[in-house]
């Protein structure tokens, strides 16, 4: 149990029979009336963010979650298979709890969030950026663009993203996993 004074980004709450992580909060003390806390809560299962207001001092049930490093091994008909980096135990996860599975390649390091009491995996997060090779890119035609033109390329994982026209096949690029966007070319 925690009160609104214990709120901090990353705290996991059991709210409306679901698990939420606090992404942002603000204590508000209006000139008249009681104090309250305005929060942004991210649902662990769906990824949706909601705004919610709590009265100051109310008790909220917290959930203990643990982040454990895992390595992606392979995908089969049962799901995505990972190995715990510390205990070498293997687990299989469904694709719906993995953040951007199309950007994951064999050997990729990820973090899996576990509910500490039940030992159930809740979410699999990729690092903010991944390095991938472009396996297919149409050649750019000089002169048919004015500014900020992009083209679709295929990456080594099979994902397709938009990149600037100067990116060619077999180049290595950095991809932002939060929105599957091109970040930069890797030397």
Structural write-up:
The protein has 187 residues and is mainly β. The chain has 3 domains: 2-60, SH3 type barrels, CATH 2.30.30.30; 65-125, OB fold (Dihydrolipoamide Acetyltransferase, E2P); 129-185, Beta Barrel (OB fold (Dihydrolipoamide Acetyltransferase, E2P)), CATH 2.40.50. It contains no helices and 16 strands. The protein starts with a strand and ends with a strand.
What is the structural class? Answer: mainly beta
Number of domains: 3
Oligomeric state of the chains?
A: single chain
Could you state the CATH homologous superfamily of the largest domain?
Nucleic acid-binding proteins
Span between termini: 49 Å
CATH top level of the largest domain is: Mainly Beta
Mind telling me the C-alpha Rg? 21 Å
Please provide the ordered H/E string of secondary-structure elements: EEEEEEEEEEEEEEEE
Largest sheet: 5 strands, antiparallel
**Unreliable spans:** none
Q: Strand arrangement, largest sheet?
A: 9-8-7-10-11
- Count the strands? 16
- Average predicted confidence as pLDDT: 89
* Fraction in beta strands: over 45%
Compute the number of helices: 0
Helix content: under 10%
- CATH topology grouping of the largest domain: OB fold (Dihydrolipoamide Acetyltransferase, E2P)
User: Would you identify the CATH architecture of the largest domain?
Assistant: Beta Barrel
What characteristic shape results from the CA principal axes?
Answer: flat
